[in-house]
Amino acid sequence: MAIEQGIWKIGSRPKKLSPVVIESENLLEEQIVADISILNFGWMIIGQQVRTAFDKYIDLLAIDASGSVIIIELKRHKTPRDVVAQAIDYASWVVDIDDSKLVDIYFEYSQKRSLNEQSLDRAFKSKFGLAFSEVNYDGSHQMVIVAAELDASSERIINYLNDKAKIPVNAVFFSVFEDNGNKYLSRAWMIPPEETQERVISKSSKEPWNGEFYVSFGHGKERHWADARKYGYISAGHGRWYSNTLNSLEVGSRIWVNIPGNGYVGVG
To answer: Nearest 5°: CA angle at 144, between 93 and 191?
Structure first.
C-alpha cells in the first residue's frame, strides 16, 4: 500500500506544492534530533549513532514516559528489507541491556550534543515529571523505520509482524515540499502509532507488580487538575493504548497521579 502525501496552499484556487528530494537523510535525522515531536511529543532522544555489542550503530534511540525504548532507524541507502531486518537485530540487543546502560548512552549523547543536562535522571524528570530511576525499566521497546517510501514486500512484513507476531515495528514516511523558497516537512505513519504502542515488547519484569497504578495527567487546555479534583476523576488521551489502560482500574485501586513538569500531585 503506497502512501502518497500532498500539501495544498489555500487560496482562491488550491495550489499544490511541489515535492522535492531530501538532500540527505542526515538532514532528516538532525531535524528529528532538534525536535523529536516530529515523530512523537511524548518521546525523548537519549542516543544518536549508538554502538551495539555487535559493533553496529543504531541511528537514534529514544525513550517514553514509561521507560520504554524506541529504536529509530533511517532507511538511508539500505534496501527496504535490510532496514527492517536491521531494526529487529538492534531490538535483540536493546531488550537485554539494563537501565545503567541507558544512563551511559544518554551521558555520551549529551556530551556530544553539548546539552546542559547530562544526567538522564534529571533530563527525564524535566521532560516527564519524574526521575528515570523511579521508572521500572524492563527492556520494553518498539521499532520505527523512517523512510521516504518502502516496497510492497517490506510493508507486508511490517504488517505481518504487527498483526500476527505482535511485534511492535512501524514505519513513518517523510516528504519535503517547497513553496517560494520555503521548504515544508510532511509526515505519515504506516500504522497508527497507538496500535504499535499496544504491542510494546518487554522482558519479564524485575519485580512482581505491587498492584498500584501510575497516571500521567496531562494538565493543559484539554484537562485541568483543578477540575479533576473537583469532580473526582482522572483521564488519559493521545491514543487508545493510554485510555484503555484505565480499564484495568478496580474499586479500591491505589493511584499515583503525576503532572509532567510539576511532579506528583495526588494519591488515592
So the answer is: 135
Cβ-Cβ contacts under 8 Å for 241 (sequence gap 6 or more): 194, 195, 197, 198
Cell of 234: 482522572
Are 58 and 50 in contact by the 8 Å Cβ rule? The answer is yes
pLDDT digits (tens, 9 = 90+) for 117-176: 999 999 999 998 888 988 878 889 999 999 887 788 888 899 899 888 888 999 998 888
Residues 188 and 244 in one domain: no
Do 100 and 162 lie in one domain? The reply is yes
DSSP 77: T
CA distance 143 to 204: 19
- For 169, the enclosing helix (H) or strand (E) is strand 169-179
- Nearest Cα to Cα of residue 29 among 57, 52, 1, 66: 57
* Cα angle for residues 15, 148, 64 (degrees, 5° grid): 110
User: What's the pTM value of the predicted model, to 2 decimals?
Assistant: 0.74
Distance, in Å, from the CA atom of 175 to the CA atom of 152, rounded to the nearest integer, reads 18
Domain range for 99: 13-197
Integer Rg of the chain from CA: 20
